[in-house]
Amino acid sequence: MMSSRVAQSTLRATARQFAAAPRAAALNGARTYAAAASPDTKPPIALYGIDGTYANALYTASAKASSLDQISRALATLSDVFKKDTKLPAILGAPTLSMSDKTQIIQQLQRVAGGPGKDDILKNFLATLAENNRLSVLEGVCEKFAALMSAHRGEIELIITSAQKLDAKTLQRLESAVAKSEYSQGKKLKVVSKINPDIVGGLVVEVGDRTIDLSVSSKIAKLNKALTDTL
């Protein structure tokens, strides 16, 4: 089991790597970090961007400490908080946050996520984000860590985007239909429901790297293009 000091060292080393060259880290950091990990702790899929780099670092540290499931549950809880509190991203990204503010935020986030946990990995991770002025990427880290865990469990995400919230029965019917199709690739589906009023109506269904756009907004765009090309 990895000590909290080693876990924090791993996260800090990764943070320093792209703090010195943020653009390079955003493009190559995830791949570089994953390559350095052992087979048992290597992230199962390649992620990119600052949030992807941090998600990879957290995954590796959690895997070494045998606490992937615990950290996954904690981040899922934080992800729900972001969905309920739309002002939270702006608060975390505020450039005027003092170290005292950041300390209080970390304590609150940790409390919401379920306490210190095993080896204080989450606490150390949040501290690393704060020290590098990266608390604003936490929401993205939660999403990308969930993607890593889905891959780790052999799942494939079924993302269903609608203009309004869909009921459980409709989501179940969609999941069943996709599970029977070639789009599921024979893997267990993890349903992720998203709401985007901009699509007006209909659905946008994403399975792995495939997208089925049945939204009203897409149909309107195609109609506008057809009219423009005709004129």
UniProtKB/TrEMBL annotation:
GO terms for molecular function: proton-transporting ATP synthase activity, rotational mechanism. It is found in: Membrane. It comes from the Eukaryota. GO terms for cellular component: membrane. PROSITE patterns: ATPASE_DELTA. It holds the Pfam family OSCP. Gene3D superfamilies: N-terminal domain of the delta subunit of the F1F0-ATP synthase (1.10.520.20). Keywords: ATP synthesis, Hydrogen ion transport, Ion transport, Membrane, Transport. The keyword Membrane applies. Belongs to the ATPase delta chain family. HAMAP family: ATP_synth_delta_bact (MF_01416). This is ATP synthase subunit 5, mitochondrial. It comes from Helicocarpus griseus UAMH5409.
